[in-house]
Amino acid sequence: GKGGKGGKGGKGGKGGGGGGGGKGRGATSGDPMCKVFVSNLSWYTGNQELGDFMSEVGHVVNVEILTEGGVPGGRSKGCAFVEFSSNDAALGAVERLHDSWLGDRQLAIREFRP
After folding, report:
1. pTM, entire model
2. What is the 3-state secondary structure (H, E, C) of the chain?
């Protein structure tokens, strides 16, 4: 035989949301039970800042800030998907970080539903 493909390397290998058409796909990849939807973000909040903020409840795997037209680096729509390594962390974010403040904005955080 050909020796198989050797697996895909788990969740970590997503790499940058994949340029074109990343909006639809990126939102549904990974485990939806580990994701939260964050809204009312400041337009100035970036992936790194949001990821650091969310990591106080658990390990953040992926942060995807939605932009106008779905263009990477485009103007933020003020909402994001954040994926954690576990469902517990995602639930913790909803419980503990909903209505918390990041910069001058009070964030709304809810469970992600595909």
Report:
1. 0.71
2. CCCCCCCCCCHHHHCHHHCCCHHHHHHHCCCHHHEEEEECCCCCCCHHHHHHHHCCCCCEEEEEEEEHHHCCCCCEEEEEEEEECCHHHHHHHHHHHCCCEECCEECEEEECCC
Q: How many CA atoms lie within 13 A of 87 on its CB side?
A: 4
Location of structure tokens 């198989």: 4
| Total Cβ atoms within 10 A of residue 98 | 14
Distances (CA, A) of 16 to 6, 20, 22, 58, 68: 22, 11, 9, 21, 17
pLDDT-derived band at 113, boundaries 50, 70, 90? confident
